[in-house]
């Protein structure tokens, strides 16, 4: 039985490594992490059983303090050192203290305690510059550290990795580092949650970037297996492994979007099919990030979009022949099996599928639900092309008659009624001559027409709903006026001013033109929207989000309103009877 320490044993990869070490049966595992204690309700059955039998133990430590590290690793042969992205919260001082200074403290503690082997979990992102593709890149010949890292966490990981490799063969300590690429699996906190966050947002309708980019993905259990392979290699043939770094993948490069869609479709999310250039999306996301940085805020949704854009923008594949040859690593779980196991573990984030998608009923389009299932919907959605075309001509005639003939509304209405009366009377007089005596008399025809005309009826429920709507609108206007009078909401003020100005510009100044454009637009827009509702919703959502962020950014810079002097109570407080007596 050999004793090992898993520093960061509660991290994403650390949990899987602990379970795999316990399955081997020849390790005494010390789990070390920053948490005060283990939550036994959330731990695996294997770890719980090992803790009860003494094959596993837990140590609370802080890598910023070397004494706690020494207490955890004293008497062990090997240290597996992993940290999590949660250890860096975009604060440079805190991240440097945990990742870089923490690595130095771990190295010094290992040398002091005579630990024989130290294996560091790095990341393949340390060689990415996000301006060039990486195709079949290897560790020594083609890839060096990036000159421009994607984030603070990756930059600090590169520094920590360099310190670990430089510490090799000092005071008998042998070191190496592993660089897994795009790790995923049960318990993932970065890759799949980012994909799900994007799938829930307005970006879900689009393929961001090129769908031809290829990347290497690595199932988490394969990464844990690679750590054990590296430890065995350091023990047996040290010269080819110590002081070296190895890329770790699933040996199955795949299209980035194909991988993402397999995960998302397994959780019930729809497959996008509209392609947007990565440059355009990157500019939009950069603008939103700049707005949030000015407001000292961090929106996780836009961070997720930024991560996915970076992932889908370039090809990144790695040559793992060094790991295969020197540490004898090969994947133990295929990519397809890893995707299936990951999807199964994230069922709590699955999208609830509507019954229509399961084939139970035919789902109505959004436009049909908005317009209802009556004649108006049939006309605007061109269900009957002849009827819709006649209706369009009728609307165009009414627009011309009332708006383009340069007459008043009353004059136009009177002339139109006069024409209708003449046409009806002429039809009644001339129809017997054209169709013969067999045709119904004009009197009977008029009576039949009057009987078929619908009566004007209003239900009590409709009137109650109408009155309630009017009351709600009145109360809303009153609340709006009160909020504006208080002068404390710049965002509300901006919305009202912009809305009134648009109403004045479109409706008041150009009323006839607005009516004509609106009527013609309704016959075109609803039909097009029914065909491409998903794409239009996505574009509108993106535009609205940019406008909302712009308004928030502008209003955050405005001065805070000062209370009016009239609102300040200048009257002196009156003393009570008891106070006067005292």
UniProtKB/TrEMBL annotation:
Which GO biological process entries does UniProt record here?
A: steroid biosynthetic process
Can you give the residue ranges of the Reticulon domain?
Answer: 376-579
Which superkingdom heads the taxonomic lineage of this protein's source? Eukaryota
Transmembrane is among the record's keywords: yes
Q: Per UniProt, which keywords does this protein have?
A: Endoplasmic reticulum, Isomerase, Membrane, Oxidoreductase, Transmembrane, Transmembrane helix
TM helices/strands, residue ranges? 408-430, 501-529
A molecular function (GO) term: oxidoreductase activity, acting on the CH-OH group of donors, NAD or NADP as acceptor
Q: Where in the cell is it found?
A: Endoplasmic reticulum membrane
Its placement in the membrane is given as: Multi-pass membrane protein
**What's a Pfam family in this record?**
Reticulon
Q: Which InterPro entries match?
A: 3Beta_OHSteriod_DH/Estase, Lipid_A_modif_metabolic_enz, NAD(P)-bd_dom_sf, Reticulon
Q: A cellular component term (GO) from this record? A: endoplasmic reticulum membrane
Family listed: Belongs to the 3-beta-HSD family.
- Write the protein's name: Reticulon-like protein
Q: Which organism is it from?
A: Artemisia annua
